[in-house]
Amino acid sequence: MARAHAASGQATQALAVFGGMLADGVLPDNVALAVALTACHGVGLSSAAARKPGKMVHALIVTSGIVPDVFVSTELIRVYGECGELSVSRRVFDEMPVRSTVSWNAMVHQYVRHSNVGAAYKLFLAMPRRDVVSWNTMIAGYCLVGQCREALGLFRQMVSPSSCPVRPNGPTMSTVLAACAGAGCLETGIWVHAYIDRNRLNDDGSLDRSLIDMYAKCGSIEKALQVFEKAPGKRDLYSWTTVICGLAMHGRASDALRMFDAMQDNGIRPDDVTLVGVLNACAHGGLVDEGLCHFYSMEEKYAIVPKIEHHGCIIDLLGRVGRLQEAYNMIRTMPMKPNAVIWGAFLNACKVHSNVELGEIAAAEVSRLDPNDPWARVMLSSMYAKAQDWSSLARERKEMNSLQMKKTPGCSSIELDGEVHEFVAGGFQHPQLGEICTILENIEAG
Question: How many CB atoms lie under 10 A from the CB of residue 230?
């Protein structure tokens, strides 16, 4: 009965049946324990009260002397991991006399979901056997913490015939394309696209959205449009939205708005993310009236209540064209509290248009919301210097020194032959620095 409830998604009823079995004095076997722990996932583990059933099942196992099998122990790893108690998950894992690949994957996954990729990778290396889930979990883990180049390096290991017998699948490629997008690796993205086509991993079009997103974020909007145009029968809301956002990102406001109209002509109703792309297009194109029209008609036309991201787009739009007082009034009257991103966009607009008075207000708010980030103070110092307000500049720098704040060094990167080279201002860590300096000297010499 408990299994039937759990299988049909009735987690609360499944736990009730399990509790009734215990009340009748029936000692559960491993099958019943696994069902009960699975039901614990179904009721959610976000609160202390919700976590209680899983811990009670574990206590029952310990006190009754039941020897949990591999399935029960694996479910315990998941339950404690989702509760945020990784140390208990690891203890359960370490105490397992026999571990399946699923057990190893479960423990790696819990480390990954809590952003502990170092521990996850150590466990990944120790696995006696890795399947596609193992590789996917570890690659996704690197992406989760922004280590996209490490994710791509791991993928290269995965597809190397000499080191790995496991073939990537659709989820692998979706994650790898996201890593290419995150690292801005267009050459690698093209190679991954070719790998996908060569191995027929996108025959159903399921990777089209990821390909469009990758090309758009890597600076090749034309290739993104090519992928989009080749799949006329497989375009969904996400595909349309990705193209609209990509066009907006590349400053092609008119094309983005035409695509938005075409999407609706094809019977696709926009969501809140689509409208962010539309408003961004208006901001980048300086289309004030059109942007305001879309913003103020969102709720009436599409039943979408503007979120902070939509307000941010309009503030950016007004700021770009110098309508700073209107932007400031919108920030003050927003139905939600403005965050550091909102104030940061406004501060940048104040700097561009040399409005020190409003810039001081924006900088103070950014510093209040994110006191450890020196960016706002650096921006304000730059504004003082441009206005030749030397006393205010000296005061600001003195305060920065007293707080031991330093400007974050500038950073740039370039992809060459599939490898990303990163350069930091004032840095001397690049392994080919000597050769680079020699070439620069030769260029400067003539």
Answer: 11
| More confident: 40 or 219 | 219
Distance CA 90, CA 270 (A): 44
DSSP string, 273-310: HHHHHHHHHHHHHT-HHHHHHHHHHHHHHH-----HHH
**pLDDT level of residue 423 (50, 70, 90 thresholds):** low
pLDDT of residue 430: 55
Of 315, 303, 293, nearest to 272 by C-alpha is 303
Residue 38 CB neighbour total at 10 angstroms: 19
| DSSP-assigned letters across all residues of 318-347 | HHHTT-HHHHHHHHHH-SS---HHHHHHHH
SS3 content of the chain, % helix, strand, coil (to 5): 70, 5, 25
Residues contacting 415, CB < 8 A, separation 6+: 184, 185, 186, 187, 188, 421
4, pLDDT greater than 50:
no
Angstrom distance (rounded) from CA 140 to CA 174: 10
Distance between CA 386 and CA 271 in Å, rounded? 42
Taking the CB of residue 134, how many other CB atoms lie within 10 A of it?
21
Evaluate whether 367 touches 377 at the Cβ level (below 8 Å). Answer: yes
- Kindly report the number of other CB atoms within 10 A of residue 432's CB atom: 10
Distance (Å, whole) CA 190 – CA 425? 29
Angle between helices 288-302 and 308-320 (to 10 degrees): 160
Q: Give pLDDT, residue 11.
A: 47
Closest C-alpha among 220, 135, 207 to residue 178: 207
> How far is Cα 117 from Cα 131, in angstroms, rounded to an integer?
18
